[in-house]
Amino acid sequence: MPTIVIPLYEGVTHLDFTGPHQVLSRAPGAQVIVASMGGRDMTCDGLSFTGLADLTAIEGCDMICVPGGLGATTAMLDEAFMAQIRRLGSGATYVTSVCTGSLILAAAGFLTGKRAACHWAWRELLVPFGAIVDEGRVVRDGNIITGGGVTAGIDFAFVVLAELAGEAYAQAVQLGLEYAPQPPFDAGRPETAPPHVVAAYNRQMGALGVQRMADAQEAARRLQPA
Q: Of 153, 204, 160, 136, which is closest to residue 26 (Cα–Cα)?
């Protein structure tokens, strides 16, 4: 009966964890624990999540799944939070993430020399940590499984579910959830989105990119031996 821990922090994107949670909660006998520091409530894009477990009180887990969000690079500088990520990840069979959650895994020291996925707009922030950027939607390197941006978390979750319960079981869950995406626009990746859409997104994220790079470089510096 696998224990799966999903740690939340301020600024997390809720689909990064609610999508995988919906799938992974169907794993036979799985205990999926959504936690935060001190068990405090989290509000994500206007949705409030309550009744969370205290991350510091969880003794261990079989799998840790770190979601991403605009607060990811701030979270990686929170030493108390990162201590819990390192503690739980070091004892887990699977160390996983969705979207920019891989930046948190990298800052915890789990991705050095490992291939990893991330949201396309932020994947280069993996480089200061010695991770190998992989543009795949779901990437596996040993016991590290990472998903790309936001919605890739659902694909990621089915990969993990097949690992835990077999492909036939995972396919049955996929059928039950009617997961057969047909997006109305082919604009989900910069390679296929219209250039003016990509340019508008990059302008919107411009100032944030500078701060996030600074946060990543500081977190990478902290990983270096004193």
A: 160
Count how many domains the chain has: 1
Which residues participate in catalysis according to the annotation? Answer: 99
Kindly report, residue by residue over 140-179, the tens digit of the pLDDT: 999 999 999 999 999 999 999 999 999 999 999 999 999 9
Q: Quote the CA–CA distance of 133 and 210 in Å, as a whole number.
A: 19
CATH code for the domain of 88? 3.40.50.880
Q: CA 126 to CA 180: how far, in whole Å?
A: 31
Q: Are strands 132-133 and 144-147 parallel, antiparallel or unpaired?
A: unpaired
Spell out the residues 6+ positions from residue 214 whose beta carbon is closer than 8 angstroms to its own.
Answer: none
Residue type, 160: V
Domain that residue 200 falls in: 3-223
Residue 167 CA to residue 160 CA, distance in Å, equals 10
Reported as a pLDDT band with limits 50, 70 and 90, residue 226 is: low
